[in-house]
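Q: Sequence in, structure out?
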Amino acid sequence: MAYSEKLADRIRARLTGLPNVKEKEMMGGLTFMLNDKMCVGIIKDELMCRIDPDIYEAILEKKGCRPMDFTGRPMKGWIIIDEPGMKNKKDFDYWIDLALDFNKKAKPYKKKR
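A: Exactly. Output:
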């Protein structure tokens, strides 16, 4: 499954200058790790963001946003943004900023041995 290189370039440009950013291909898409924590990613041509679970329900009401749901059970704190929801720079930056804000307080994943 391919992901949008155009969206990947937008994310790269937005994260330029931040320390400890890594890219990983996973889940058929591309994930951007910040400080060894998943922050944002791409699935096909949509943006995936890890946000504060405390604001999750309110954020779902925003244009272009829906729960991330791969298995029939939405993952609280993870959202998918479609292209119309991030078309302009202001909207795109809004979603990236939500993910960056939560990344500061998110716990890192335990590394497998």
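The mean pLDDT is 92.
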